[in-house]
Amino acid sequence: MERIECVVVGAGVVGLALARQLAMAGREVVLLEAEDRFGTGISSRNSEVIHAGIHDAPGSLKAQLCVAGNRALYDYCQRRGVAHRRCGKLIVATEPSQVETLERIQAKARANGAEALRWLSQTEACGLEPRIRCVAALLSPATGIVDSHGLMKALLLDAESCGASLVLRSPLLRGRGVAGGLELAVGGAEPMTLRADQVFNCAGLQAHAVAGSIEGLRMDSLPPLHLAKGNYYGLSGSAPFSHLIYPVPEAAGLGVHLTLDLGGQARFGPDVEWVDHLDFDVGPSCAEAFCGEIRRYWPELPEGALQPACAGIRPKLQGPGEPAADFLIQGPDSHGVPGLVNLLGIESPGLTACLSLAERVAAGA
């Protein structure tokens, strides 16, 4: 039986960032990934937005780690040559009744320590984006976009250069606490048993299942998992805006917003569709609802211009109508298994926060 100091479960952007952080600190790290390549889950099905720390509750882990992660991520991408662009975004009020919400967003961003937002009148907003329809807007200069695959590749290369090993097609089947750590049964074509001093569960959508497979874990320590599907539609033709465009947020998400990729193509989404299983199909049925939302801030959206693109699913710790839940970094004091750390509910802004989240978790290890 092979003895390993640290096992990280899940090679998405957070698992890769944590493996890098641990390896850079001189720890022995094995990164287990159930799929045949890294980053196939949440990390490859999102808006690829570098968030500024505007919308999350002041004092929350999401807010703290997003603001710190925003700065760290821009610095990292610059140093490592990861494609990105600080394009900025407009948060738009399309009705006078929404102006008060914009004011609350500005106050929340200030409380979070996010880079200052600039208030724009209707005239100023239209000066920046002539095709926008709004009565007022906030400009977030620190919001941007990143090549998520390029980021994950750079994180993996860093981790491997410090001695970490990525093992693909190796799902964690079960584990149990033993003296000085955990014993792990790993599946795949060549099943194996590992003895780990510490295990970090970064399995994203599967994090609850991984946690539940560990013998001795107090099941009542796991909060309920709710799956929120987000559909995306691509825009045929050239992008109408140079900034990201976000409407005033809705309860469980940030509304049907316009994002750009690094090639300049526009994509709309995500919406919020509560589901009970993993389903990544995007049909044409949502297009009509998307068009109605988009035309609130872009009335010129042509008929038939939206094409199904992709879907992502967010692992939320709150259900429909419930207050937004924070990231959960759960250690032995909570669940009862020495050496195990669960990262639960790591949804947006997890991509932005990956470096700061990895630093926080590694510092407590």
Give an overview in words:
With 365 residues, the chain is α/β, with parallel strands linked by helices. It folds into two domains: 2-45 and 149-223 and 325-363, FAD/NAD(P)-binding domain, CATH 3.50.50.60; 89-141 and 225-316, D-Amino Acid Oxidase, Chain A, domain 2, CATH 3.30.9. It is built from nine helices and 21 strands. Strands 1, 2, 9, 10, 11, 12, 13, 20 and 21 form a nine-stranded mixed β-sheet that branches. The relative contact order is 0.20.
Q: Quote the average pLDDT.
A: 95
For this structure, the CATH topology of the largest domain is FAD/NAD(P)-binding domain
The separation of the N and C termini measures: 23 Å
Total beta strands: 21
Summed up, the domain count is: 2
CATH architecture of the largest domain: 3-Layer(bba) Sandwich
Task: Kindly state the percentage of residues in helix.
Answer: 25-40%
How much of the sequence lies in strands comes to: 25-35%
- Give the uncertain stretches in residue-range form: none
Number of helices: 9
* Global geometry: elongated
Radius of gyration: 21 Å
Instruction: Name the CATH superfamily classification of the largest domain.
Output: FAD/NAD(P)-binding domain
CATH class of the largest domain: Alpha Beta
Which labels suit this protein?
nine-stranded mixed β-sheet; 365 residues; D-Amino Acid Oxidase, Chain A, domain 2; FAD/NAD(P)-binding domain; five-stranded antiparallel β-sheet; alpha/beta; elongated
